[in-house]
Amino acid sequence: MKLADNKSTLSFSNGSPQVELPVYQGTIGPDVIDIRKLYAQTGMFTYDPGFMSTASCQSAITYIDGDKGELLYRGYPIEQLAEKCDYLDTCYLLLNGELPDNAQRDDFHQLVTNHTMVNEQMQFFLRGFRRDAHPMAVLTGLVGALSAFYHDSTDIHNPEHRNIAAIRLIAKMPTLVAMAYKYGLGQPYMYPQNNLSYAGNFLRMMFGTPCEEYKVNPVIEKAMDRIFILHADHEQNASTSTVRLCGSSGTNPFAAIAAGVACLWGPAHGGANEAALNMLYDIQKQGGVEKIGDFIKQVKDKNSNVKLMGFGHRVYKNYDPRAKLMQETCNEVLEALGLQNDPLFALAKALEKIALEDEYFVSRKLYPNVDFYSGIVQRAVGIPVNLFTGIFALARTVGWIAQLNEMIADPEYKIGRPRQLYVGSPRRNVP
Ligand code: CMC
């Protein structure tokens, strides 16, 4: 880490000696104050629930400038990657730090393709679930269970194990998500077909059946690929931090990624795309565009607990660049499928317009996030609402694994162990 010119000094009003704290500089973004020795020097901890001001690690993978609305993977703007690369190029970039050349690209595609099947026994494990189980419950179980099937890639301290686990996870996630879907439907699982693209293969495993040939629609294939790229990584968000914390104990990569899947499920995180679409359905049921005013009133009422789902972000306080790209894809998909006049899309656009002009949202810097439009695209493609977060998990797996592997390879890595401000009863005796 590079020391900044700036220095920080912490002083106390009770006369305790001042403490000098080093300040480090990243390549871009805010500097950080190094408080690692604070407890040893002062006997005090810092207090930062929700990590509002805390950098939990150093990372060279993803950078977000929330005020500018900028997202970079390994330095490349998301807009350029979405335009010029496919998801597997993006995976290679996130894992290795550079975009692949032609030979590396072919090798990587080949490698991932060779790992798309899952152990046949996985389908019997899947059978233990109720057919109506939420796909995220199923996926949490299936991903964790991979560690029981691939014993030769569970040692997180072995770089070869880490690499092969990364490839297995990226390759097998589409297969698992599609299996979870088919199981719920009661249809036969479709084995992967390796002459298709990553997104095309996923679509076939989802919507194909053994009785008919499945033809991949290139517009939908491109849209899926873009959804995957936009969700591939997002620096130290809740699920990624969960994966890092879980992996910091030395647990195997499959278990750490399963923890990420579980965290992603929540409606404040990956579950927001499902929640956003359900919100649109609710407004539609109550009367559609006419009822937006009433809905916004509810959102502004602090006692209602109603949020405008798909709006707001902890980091983006200008706009979410992924939302813009997703809106573009949304237009393309709806047009290709002849759904331009889709009432839900019209409702989403009207809701967005009203919210963007409303003082409540403007003053709090609340803008649409990626989930506002991704649900509409997925619904148009035919993906059921309860599988949206599963698609997000599929796409984010590469980010989780890149971040996990970066942490393990970092010489400064330690088990994650936050401290606390204890406010419970002091020591007392049982009567
Ligand atoms: N609707 C209404 N009010 C909101 C919303 C919203 N969606 N988001 C934030 N606010 C208000 C919040 O009530 C607070 O108001 P006040 O200052 O009067 O108390 C203010 O804006 C600041 O909000 P916050 O909760 O302190 O912000 P945060 O950074 O802790 O939360 C968030 C970020 C994403 C959890 C939140 O904006 C939210 O719950 N949004 C809806 C869920 C959603 O769309 N999540 C997807 C995030 S993007 C995908 C991903 O990366 O997972």
Class per helix and strand makeup = mainly alpha
The spatial strand order of the largest sheet comes to 1-4-5
SSE order, one letter for each helix or strand: EEEEEHEEEHHHHHHHHHHHHHHHHH
Our count of helices gives 18
Please state the overall shape, judged from the principal axes of the Cα atoms: globular
CATH classification, class level of the largest domain: Mainly Alpha
Mean pLDDT: 94
Largest sheet: 3 strands, antiparallel
Keywords: Acyltransferase, Transferase, Tricarboxylic acid cycle
InterPro entries: Citrate_synth-like_lrg_a-sub, Citrate_synth-like_sm_a-sub, Citrate_synthase, Citrate_synthase_AS, Citrate_synthase_bac-typ, Citrate_synthase_sf, Citrate_synthase_typ-I
Family: Belongs to the citrate synthase family.
Catalytic activity: oxaloacetate + acetyl-CoA + H2O = citrate + CoA + H(+)
Topology:
Layout: E1 2-3, E2 8-10, E3 19-21, E4 23-25, E5 32-33, H1 38-42, E6 62-65, E7 70-73, E8 76-77, H2 78-84, H3 87-96, H4 102-113, H5 122-126, H6 135-149, H7 159-185, H8 198-207, H9 218-230, H10 238-247, H11 253-264, H12 272-286, H13 292-300, H14 321-336, H15 343-357, H16 359-363, H17 370-381, H18 388-409
Antiparallel strand pairs: 1-4, 2-3, 4-5, 6-7, 7-8
The structure holds carboxymethyl coenzyme *A.
The site of carboxymethyl coenzyme *A (CMC) has 20 residues, from helix 17.
Pfam families: Citrate_synt (PF00285)
InterPro entries: Citrate_synth-like_lrg_a-sub, Citrate_synth-like_sm_a-sub, Citrate_synthase, Citrate_synthase_AS, Citrate_synthase_bac-typ, Citrate_synthase_sf, Citrate_synthase_typ-I
Family: Belongs to the citrate synthase family.
